[in-house]
Specification:
alpha+beta
């Protein structure tokens, strides 16, 4: 069985600062804390336009 590349879900907003994006990252991670599902992998990525985007994935 081959490992598939993760399917990323992008948050609907771009952020001017890494701090703003990190706050959303923390909220997404907290939603799965103490839940029944495996938590997502959440990343903050810097775009070429010097803005930040939050993306996450989870095991299906």
């Amino acid at each position: 069985m081959e490992a598939q590349a993760p399917k990323w879900i992008y948050y609907r907003q771009l952020f001017r600062s890494k701090f703003q994006a990190s706050c959303i990252k923390a909220k997404i991670e907290d939603n799965w804390h103490n839940g029944y599902e495996i938590g997502p992998v959440v990343e903050v990525r810097k775009l070429k336009t010097n803005k930040y985007v939050v993306r996450y994935t989870y095991d299906e």
